[in-house]
Design a protein that fits this description.
The complex is a heterodimer of chains A (138) and B (288). The radius of gyration of chain A is 16 Å and the shape is elongated. In chain A, strands 1, 2, 3, 4, 5, 6, 7, 8 and 9 form a nine-stranded mixed beta sheet that branches. Chain A is an alpha+beta fold and 138 residues long. Chain A has two domains: 7-87, ATP Synthase, domain 1 (Sandwich), CATH 2.60.15.10; 92-137, Up-down Bundle (Single alpha-helices involved in coiled-coils or other helix-helix interfaces), CATH 1.20.5.440. Helices cover 27% and strands 41% of the residues of chain A. Chain B contains seven helices and six strands; from the N terminus they run αααβαβαβαβββα. In chain B, 60% of the residues lie in helices and 12% in strands. The chains are: A alpha+beta (138), B alpha/beta (288). The interface between A and B is medium-sized, with 24 and 28 residues.
Chain lengths: 138, 288
């Protein structure tokens, strides 16, 4: 177990462990709002939204990740994010996200009965998140 | 008796075939290694998700659990089978083992009492040829599945289950043991059964955000997706393993065939030479 100033964070997706290291602060968005986590937090399980995930490393450097839902568990000062997908800023393809955004917007505006409204909305949400992260991290 | 020329031609054609099977064997073994690493890398995710699910379900009592639509156990009138097979052949008995298993599972049932979802061209073609009802089919990714494929199949299956079209969903896939052994297995996907559910057996106290019920509601589909993804990865590793084994034995067989043919060819060649020498000697003797 780490000292009182940091906690261990693991971000696990079905294909890989995206992040594993010591952090000093984590902000994750749940259904009812942002959740800030400092070291030695009580045990917790939360469902996450499609939203940025902020983590401050042990030396205070801020990073934003694109997190696409999933769950967060805190147990004995170890934070585990189990998510279908989570992207580091450098992994994001801006052009692709831009294309996906345009496509989703077109679909939502077409007012066609055959389109899967919910799916288009989720696609829009995902592309907006990617662009947002890219803007935040440069 | 074939002539020396015929034998030469056959040896050439067999060694060409051997070259092809050898190349396919090497491709399959390289991809198998990659598929195995991929299957391994999903383990932490599946493990952690299962752990959270178990923790959460231990805080709910059995009556509460039964109210979740995905865990609704009812009398089985109609079943949905999900068959995970290969897109391409040349993988030994891989696809036929799967279909045999499916045949046993559905032996006592009328074809109208089940629906099928297939992955891979081979099982799809089989079911079409034998006029089974095919509800959904997926082709093109049997040897390189991705998480999004798993999600799509789970969505289709849950829709059938929640609409009441089917009362259970059974997954038939090949479990990868090693490149020589693969077992066809079936797994009940829906309704979800919580193994060893002990009410109120709480190891740790947790805060739930927003609340236990909402989390549980979201956990169940994720659990189905990872189960499905795992099955797809197992099947892809099995397919590549079966192909590698099949191609190894094809290459060995071709090697054996070539050496037999070579022996025959050399015998024929020797006989020809002996014959010529005795003719020359005979001619020389006649001149003296």
């Amino acid at each position: 177990m780490s000292s009182g100033k940091t906690m261990h964070l693991n971000i696990i997706t079905p294909d890989a462990t995206v992040y594993s290291g010591d952090v000093s602060f984590v902000v994750a968005r749940t259904e009812i709002g942002d959740l800030g986590i400092l070291p030695r937090h009580a045990n917790l399980v939360a469902a996450l939204e499609i939203a940025p995930l902020r983590l401050d490393s042990a030396d205070g450097k801020k990073t934003f990740l694109a997190n696409f839902g999933g769950f967060l568990e805190i147990k004995d000062n170890v934070v585990t994010v189990v998510t279908p997908n989570c992207e580091l800023p450098e992994q994001i393809d801006v052009e692709r996200a831009q294309r996906a955004k345009t496509r989703a917007e077109e679909r939502l505006q077409s007012k066609n009965a055959d389109i899967d409204f919910q799916r288009a909305q989720l696609a829009l949400k995902r592309s907006l998140l990617r662009l947002d992260i890219k803007k935040k991290m440069g | 008796m074939s002539s020396a020329q015929d034998l030469r031609k056959r040896i050439k054609s067999v060694s060409n075939t051997q070259q092809i099977t050898k190349a396919m064997k090497m491709v399959a073994s390289a991809r198998l290694r990659r598929a195995q690493t991929k299957a391994k890398s999903t383990e932490p995710y599946a493990e952690k998700l299962g752990q959270i699910l178990k923790n959460v379900s231990s805080t709910l009592d059995s009556e509460k659990l039964a109210t979740y639509p995905l865990m609704n156990v009812r009398e089985v009138n109609r079943t949905c089978y999900i068959l995970i097979g290969a897109d391409k052949g040349l993988a030994g008995a891989y696809t036929s083992n799967l279909i045999k298993f499916f045949g046993h599972a559905t032996e006592a049932k009328e074809a109208s009492t089940f629906e099928t979802i297939t992955v891979g061209r081979k099982p799809t073609e089989y079911l079409q040829y034998h006029h089974y009802g095919l509800t959904h089919s997926h082709v093109g990714f049997s040897d390189k599945p991705e998480y999004s494929h798993a999600r799509q199949i789970v969505q289709e299956a849950t829709k059938l289950f929640l609409e009441g079209t089917v009362d259970e969903v059974i997954l038939i896939y090949t479990h990868f043991v090693n490149s020589l052994t693969q077992n066809v297995q079936s797994l009940k996907l829906l309704p979800i059964e919580m193994e060893g559910h002990v009410e109120g057996e709480l190891n740790d106290l947790y805060i739930y955000e927003p609340n236990v019920e909402a989390i549980y509601d979201q956990l169940l589909p994720k659990y189905l997706e990872i189960t499905m993804y795992n099955a797809l990865l197992q099947a892809s590793a099995s397919e590549l393993g079966a192909r590698m084994t099949a191609m190894t034995s094809a290459t060995d067989n071709a090697g054996e065939l070539i050496s037999t043919l070579n022996l025959e060819y050399n015998k024929l060649r020797q006989a020809g030479i002996t014959n010529e020498i005795s003719e020359i000697v005979g001619g020389a003797n006649a001149l003296q």
